[in-house]
Amino acid sequence: MKMDVYRGTNHVSPLEREVEPVAPGIGRIVCPECGGDQNRYRSLFPSELGITQCVDCKGTGFIYVDM
After folding, report:
1. Where are the beta strands (DSSP E) in the chain?
2. Tens digit of each residue's pLDDT (9 = 90 or more) over 2-61
């Protein structure tokens, strides 16, 4: 099912995402920050910074949302 997802404090620009129902009232979407691709996300930062995974999804590639 498609849903508008609001992230953080930006309530002006919703993202339309496909939501996979997980449990009653809970859905799962692909992480909007990294797009589910940890290797691409990691390549955006110099290795000296030590950023090895996405901050939003903690490296899983998905985040949970309320439905």
Report:
1. 2-7, 10-18, 20-23, 26-30, 62-66
2. 888 887 776 788 888 899 999 999 999 999 888 889 888 888 899 899 888 888 899 899
